[in-house]
């Protein structure tokens, strides 16, 4: 017998309770003020790679969708990151706001946007997610996005922690996270509803749960890569960003 919607939703939420990356030691230090300036910069650089690939992931998903209603519902995710056309001008999206954070922590936004210096572990994890969405059944691709169920809490905790502990943190530099507090609930409601509606057999529920588990592994692996490379004792691999590079020039006195 197929478990009820309520039982299945509880199963999905339990995955986040156990595996979401808010429990990773790197995030716990970041939110409590325990990261050095260079550790924060390394996180900003590597997380940008993930942010920049989200609209590519969404475009890959939409290219496979035959239902116009689903495409119309999904396109807002792409625009939330890339920006919205409005009255002939582009309203900024999440990628622009992330580069504002990069500048606030002393990084050259052009360097961050180039993705030079991104850890290989970050690339492998993020590229695996884009490939997963491009190749798996639509139900599993949507289910993988349901880490959004747990994102509002991590954004709220991050805003509170960064404002409390870091001089660079203010409304402007943290605008990415504040905006996601408004955007994420819409995405969560649609994505969760889609998965609950379409996972109508135990086999499909198992596949959706496995997809969400995979996505938590993607997020956790990115932080593992940061932890290994930049936290004492640092083990920065060849080709990765090194402290002192990619920074904004210091203004002359």
Notes on the structure:
This protein has one domain: Heme oxygenase-like (Heme Oxygenase, Chain A, Up-down Bundle). The mean pLDDT is about 95. α3 packs parallel to α7 (about 120-135), α7 packs antiparallel against α11 and α8 (about 140-145) runs antiparallel to α10. Helix content is about 70%, strand content about 0%. With about 250 residues, the protein is an all-alpha fold. It has helices at about 5-20, 25-30, 35-60, 70-80, 95-105, 110-115, 120-135, 140-145, 150-165, 175-200, 200-230, and strands at about 85, 90. The chain has a two-stranded antiparallel sheet with strand order 1-2. One of its GO terms (molecular function) is pyrroloquinoline-quinone synthase activity. It catalyses: 6-(2-amino-2-carboxyethyl)-7,8-dioxo-1,2,3,4,7,8-hexahydroquinoline-2,4-dicarboxylate + 3 O2 = pyrroloquinoline quinone + 2 H2O2 + 2 H2O + H(+). Ring cyclization and eight-electron oxidation of 3a-(2-amino-2-carboxyethyl)-4,5-dioxo-4,5,6,7,8,9-hexahydroquinoline-7,9-dicarboxylic-acid to PQQ. Keywords: Oxidoreductase, PQQ biosynthesis. Belongs to the PqqC family.
